[in-house]
TrEMBL record:
Mode of membrane association: Multi-pass membrane protein
Keyword Phosphoprotein found: no
Any one GO CC term of the record: plasma membrane
Keyword vocabulary terms for this entry: Cell membrane, Membrane, Transmembrane, Transmembrane helix
Subcellular localization(s) per the UniProt record: Cell membrane
InterPro entries: CHR_Transporter, Chromate_transpt
Protein name (record): Chromate transporter
Pfam families found in the cross-reference section: Chromate_transp
Organism per entry: Humitalea rosea
UniProt entry tagged with the keyword Magnesium: no
Superkingdom of the organism of origin: Bacteria
Entry's transmembrane regions: 87-110, 116-135, 147-165, 171-188
GO MF assignments: chromate transmembrane transporter activity
């Protein structure tokens, strides 16, 4: 299935090798302060056109229910899809290598400069920008996927259960996961 990626783009780019995966994830990770998912989606879906919006959302959905960071899980799956084990290793090195180097540098700088009020204010601003990127990415994906109303309702129930009722993720998945699967199966029978 080849979903429209963005207006005017309906074909996928050539599949990447390990080096392409490394550079794509390194770029996304280097730009993704506070979370690289928004940048990974942008690089993989919009810039390099390796996957459709729906394919990327499906991989992220699987990555979210697996243990560990969802964007890391997705990097392993996407790397394997395009270049096998070397692709998974390259994607993970690109995703985690540059931020590790930057984090070590920031930790050294914070140790020396963290007590300065201007630096503390800057860090609060970076945190707010990262939160805005996460919200913007979620809104962009939601509008492009054109989800049916029943699945949107299940997603909103999951968000409410986590945010307001502070239910554990495992319980939310155990209750709402089967509801989502049932909704898709019922819709498939109608088609």
């Amino acid at each position: 299935m080849n979903d429209a990626i963005s207006p005017g783009i309906d074909t996928l780019g050539p599949p990447p090798g390990p080096w392409g995966l490394f550079t794509a994830y390194a770029k996304a990770a280097s730009l993704g302060f506070g979370g690289a998912n928004a940048w990974c989606r942008r690089v993989i879906v919009e810039e390099r056109r390796w996957m459709t919006e729906r394919e990327y959302a499906e991989v992220m959905g699987i990555g979210q229910v697996l243990p560990g960071p969802n964007v890391g899980n997705a990097a392993v799956m996407i790397g394997r899809r395009f270049a096998g084990l070397p692709g998974s290793v390259a994607a993970c090195l690109g995703l985690y290598g540059p931020p590790l180097v930057m984090l070590m540098g920031f930790a050294l700088a914070w140790d020396q400069l963290g007590s300065i009020p201007t630096v503390a204010g800057f860090m609060h601003g970076v945190a707010a920008a990262a939160a805005g990127m996460v919200i913007g990415n979620a809104a962009r994906q939601a509008t492009r996927l054109r989800l049916p109303w029943d699945l949107i309702g299940i997603g909103l129930c999951a968000a409410a259960a986590a945010a307001w009722f502070q239910m554990p993720l495992l319980l939310i998945v155990a209750v709402l996961g089967p509801a989502g699967i049932a909704a898709v199966v019922v819709r498939g029978r109608r088609a």
